[in-house]
Design brief:
This protein has 221 residues and is α+β, with helices and mostly antiparallel strands. It has 6 helices and 10 strands; from the N terminus they run βαβββαβββαααβββα. Strands 1, 2, 3, 4, 5, 6, 7, 8, 9 and 10 form a 10-stranded antiparallel β-sheet that branches. It binds flavin-adenine dinucleotide (FAD). Flavin-adenine dinucleotide binds next to strand 5, strand 6 and strand 9.
């Protein structure tokens, strides 16, 4: 899928420095993290000051798509072609160490750099909006009332190539100091995952509409 099969940093700024053994530049690792995460955080510079904004994303092939109102500062800033940085983080567990210093988290994260472009092509924009909808709830786009022309025009979509990118992954138990392993202090991992509760039907449903399977059985990929 990737023209460039990355096994090392694609630029000096994507080189993970501290605990570099946790770094990954493997496209499969990176895409899995991007696809599993519900949201990303977009960092950009506005009026000379850094800003980080949470938002929904979706991936199609080697492109990350973001969307929003044309009035959104985040999307307006992308019109200039200025660089942004995107982060996605999945927290897989709380690592409970014997020493306070070694408490940690198990995680999978991605940092991506690039200059986004605003998507003007209607076909690409349509596909991006479908991907963003289905990224959150797979199957929802086909089941929803289709977007109107007005809604389509009133939504801005930006595309960012996934090529200057790194992942960092921590897994496993605590890394305590050798002399601390005999201490009578509990240590281990509290695994964490996104687990949905039972769906709650909208009180304004006008007829008996059963919840679709993708709602009842919702889970992240
Ligand atoms: C859930 C979570 C909690 C963390 N908590 C802490 C903490 O409390 N303190 C702390 O110092 N660090 C923490 N980190 C690690 C942090 O994200 C950085 O990896 C760390 O600060 C190392 O920075 P650096 O100076 O070596 O690299 P930098 O110079 O900051 O980064 C160099 C390049 O490495 C890549 N990179 C760095 N970190 C990541 C990453 N996490 N994922 C993907 N690519 C990355 C990027 O491409 C970046 O441009 C945490 C990470 C996660 C995911």
């Amino acid at each position: 899928m990737y023209a460039l099969v990355m096994s090392e940093p694609s630029s000096s700024r994507t080189k993970v420095r501290r605990l570099a053994e946790r770094a990954s530049y493997d496209p499969a690792t990176i895409t899995t993290i991007l696809d599993e995460a519900l949201i990303c955080h977009v960092g950009f510079v506005d009026d000379g000051a850094p800003v980080v904004i949470p938002t929904i994303h979706a991936r199609i092939g080697e492109t990350l798509y973001l969307h929003g109102s044309p009035a959104s500062r985040m999307l307006r800033s992308m019109r200039s072609g200025a660089e942004i940085s995107v982060n996605v983080t999945l927290v897989d567990g709380l690592v409970v160490a014997r020493a306070a210093f070694h408490n940690s988290m198990n995680y999978r994260s991605v940092v991506l750099f690039g200059s986004p472009r605003i998507v003007d092509d209607a076909t690409e924009k349509w596909a991006a909006l479908e991907a963003i909808t289905d990224h959150v709830i797979p199957g929802r786009w086909a089941d929803s009332r289709p977007m109107t022309e007005k809604e389509f025009k009133g939504t801005l979509v930006a595309a960012l190539p996934i090529d200057e990118v790194s992942a960092k992954v921590r897994s496993g138990g605590p890394s305590d100091d050798e002399e601390d392993y005999d201490l009578p202090i509990w240590a281990g991992v509290i695994p964490l995952q996104i687990r949905p509760s039972a769906p709650v039907a909208d009180s304004l449903l006008t007829s008996e509409v059963p919840a679709p399977d993708y709602v009842v059985d919702y889970r992240r990929p």
